[in-house]
Amino acid sequence: RTDGAELPANMTYDWVNYRFFVRSDRRKLLSARLSSNFGHFYNGNRSRIGAGIDYRYQPYFTLALNAEYNKINLPSPYNDADLWLIGPRLDFTFTNNLFWTTFIQYNSQIENLGLNTRLQWRFKPVSDFFIVFTDNYDTSLFEVKNRALIAKLTYWFNL
User: How far apart are CA 156 and CA 110, in angstroms?
Assistant: First the structure.
């Protein structure tokens, strides 16, 4: 947010961060993770909690859901913040050479809902052709911010 006072430049700020992380066995079809951080953040404090769950249906697809919450507390006259980042992801394998990935993400800090979908064709080892579509929306008005369709080619030259 831009309506609060800016932190002074050329100052020294302490950064102390404690992190806890636990994860289940990723080799299983269903796995999960949970993490937390807390500590100093510039001249205030930050607390974070993140969680995710993955489901694999081999060899066809993986479905993942990730969420993160950050609470930032700063002294007056600076702004506090409650920030969310939420994102499901789907990876689908059609063949050994054709893949499709779709990622959706909500970001409360910039009030954005983004969609990214990518089709990947691996025509030779380390050589791929990608078609990517990206779409971003302003969640306060649900208007399109930007949109793009991109093609990318990578090729391995063995000289």
Answer: 38
CA-based nearest residue to 144, from 132, 155, 152, 136: 136
Strand partners, 72: 46, 81
Q: What is the pLDDT of residues 94-119, one digit of tens each?
A: 999 999 999 999 999 999 999 999 99
Total-model pTM: 0.83
Identify whether the C-beta of residue 120 lies closer than 8 Å to the C-beta of residue 102: no
CA diameter of the chain: 61
CB-CB contact of 84 with 68 (8 Å): yes
Average of per-residue pLDDT values in the chain:
94
Map residue 58 onto helix, strand or coil.
coil
Find the Cα–Cα–Cα–Cα dihedral 22, 25, 30, 33, rounded to 10°.
Answer: 10
